[in-house]
Amino acid sequence: MKVAIRYQSRGGNVRAMAEAIARGTGVDAVSIDSPKAKIKEPVDLLFIGGALYKFQLDPAFKEYLKDLPEDLISEAVVFGSSMLTRRPILMIQDVLKEKGIKINKQAVWSRNHPNDDLLGVIEYFAKNELTRDRSLDGLPPYMVFKRSQEIKAQREAEAAAKAAAEAEVEAQSAADDRSEEDAED
Length: 185
Ligand SMILES: Cc1cc2nc3c(=O)[nH]c(=O)nc-3n(C[C@H](O)[C@H](O)[C@H](O)COP(=O)(O)O)c2cc1C
Description:
- It is built from 5 helices and 6 strands, in the order βαβββαβαβαα.
- The chain is of the alpha/beta class.
- Strands 1, 2, 3, 4, 5 and 6 form a 6-stranded mixed sheet that branches.
- Helix 1 (13-25) packs across helix 4.
- The chain is elongated, with a radius of gyration of 24 Å.
- Flavin mononucleotide (FMN) is lined by residues 9-15, 51-55, 81-85, 112.
């Protein structure tokens, strides 16, 4: 899965969140000020975050959001920080929604600077978001359970088939070794 992280931060609080996401995903966190900020290739999951200043998103960040190439972005996870409320999350999501970019239901908010506990949770969340089975998205709980059981059974059958194939290859090569030894005799 192709992942990208973009963030806007004046004081470093959102940057700390972006860096936790980077640790979780193994992808660089890129500031919107960086020359590498523009998204030019398809991205399956974009982590995008910013903060609130005087009740508003940073103007340059707002422009960046508006200019995002919606045709290259399959889904976005929003993160953000402010002093009082989760408004930066909603404001970022509103711009993305207007552009028709699919928004992941999960979002991460921190009051000012995230503490170490929250950074750990963010890192875990970002990692988990990548390994989650997306075929389960949007299903009611009993269907998720049923599908999970099917997927588990399918994975077990695949693992058993792989082990059987490996055993067969091993038996075959042992038989080949024996017949080579017989030929040498
Ligand atoms: C100049 C300034 C204005 C701010 N205005 C607001 C605000 O209107 N509402 C709010 O909830 N937080 C406000 N904050 C708090 C920031 O959103 C918060 O500290 C955030 O973590 C900053 O992120 P950053 O360090 O990545 O820039 C303001 C902070 C600054 C420095």
